[in-house]
Amino acid sequence: MTELRDLLARTTEHALTYLDGASDRPVRRQVSAGELVAALGGPVPERPSDPAEVVDELARAVDPGLVVTNAGRYFGFVEGGVVPASLAADWLTSVWDQNPAFSALSPAATAAEEVCRGWLCELLSLPGTASAGFTSGAQLANLTGLAAGRHHVLRAAGWDVEADGLFGAPAVTVLAGQERHATVDRALRFLGFGTRSITPVPVDDQGRMRPDELERALGRGPAIVCAQAGNVNTGAADPLRRIGELTRAHDTWLHVDGAFGLWAAAVPELAHLTDGAELADSWAVDGHKWLNVPYDCGIVLCAHPDSHRAAMGLSAAYLARGGGRDGSDWSPESSRRARVFAVWAALRSLGRSGVAEMVRTCCAHARRCAELLASYEGITVLNDVVLNQVLIRVGDDDARTRAVAEAVQVEGATWLGTTTWRGSTAIRISVSDHATTHEHIDEAVRAVLRAARG
């Protein structure tokens, strides 16, 4: 035990060294994949090595390739930081090494999942009876919600898809906005629908699904509608109340991809963006985005627990049931990390007001960023900044916009990426980290201006 204590103390020093220097180091260093592979690689080791030396070697080899996403200066993809209690809980999660697939394996982890299920329903203003699964991210959360929907609509049509598969099943109409996230298409591929089975619904200039176009596309027979809260480019949410009314009138399953945007429901002055979300049948949301828990963490919630369990349930003679919640009934994963402990710690440490303040502050930073950049000639803000996403274009020129983004990335003081919006290149700035301050935003603006001025 003494050797293990010494090893963990040494590991703690590596972690603290990284955290202490995170605010000063480049967000992303210019290092090649080949250099990293060379530092980590070589022939497979022939003999055991001292664990302390292994940890030292790992910390040294990967350091140039680490991207600082949790120190307030990362604005590339929608990636949250890590709140302190959640980071500490995640360390304990590795020590405890619990598997929440069955309550017999970990009564503690499955109890924490049940508690967090209730807390999340309250925070997001969703039905308190909704079931929940804890997944690796919104990709599997979307897949799970859509699998529950597939089961539900085909069962209503007299078909058991879990027993009989899709060959010969009644056709299911799938409708999704033209600006849906790519993980929706991927989830539908995994579920056997294929991307050509998706009927794209036209959207407005902010990427929001148009209810009038959805109404025209809805017909008879089994159908699933995929809406979103939080367009990955603009942050806009589909008009969920009207969409929910339409899907209920047509007895159609409604799934909401709310990876980051659904967290707006926790903020009173932003809750109008997700108004009507409670009318949906399933929802996907990320913990590692706006709840700021460590990777990986997604959550699927479902208003129809029976359909959720039917789509995901796992059983075998040797799998003992402990009488409590069994996580494998609600997620595609069986053996998995007890990521819920980090969720519990984040929710317990922040509380309702803390979650709201984190989301509120990120949105205020995004508005500040947009206002500052829009005041300079040659920089155009392309979206209505309603949440945490800012789209800008430099000189109304694709090449120049890309060049500015690349120059900012190389400089390293901050990091932001590019996207394609309505056929043109844009710089996308996502503010999702509780550690971001006004000073970080001002430095990001200065970095863009330095690059734009050449």
Automatic annotation (TrEMBL):
The record's section on InterPro entries has: Aromatic_deC, PyrdxlP-dep_de-COase, PyrdxlP-dep_Trfase, PyrdxlP-dep_Trfase_major, PyrdxlP-dep_Trfase_small
The family classification in the record reads: Belongs to the group II decarboxylase family.
Q: Which UniProt keywords apply?
A: Decarboxylase, Lyase, Pyridoxal phosphate
Q: Please list the cofactors this protein needs.
A: pyridoxal 5'-phosphate
- One family from Pfam that matches here is Pyridoxal_deC
Specify the species.
Haloechinothrix alba
For this chain, one GO molecular function annotation is: pyridoxal phosphate binding
PANTHER family found in the cross-reference section: GROUP II PYRIDOXAL-5-PHOSPHATE DECARBOXYLASE, MIP05841P
One GO biological process this protein is involved in is: carboxylic acid metabolic process
* Positions of transmembrane segments: none
Quote the protein name from its UniProt record: Glutamate or tyrosine decarboxylase
For the modification N6-(pyridoxal phosphate)lysine, the affected residues are: K289
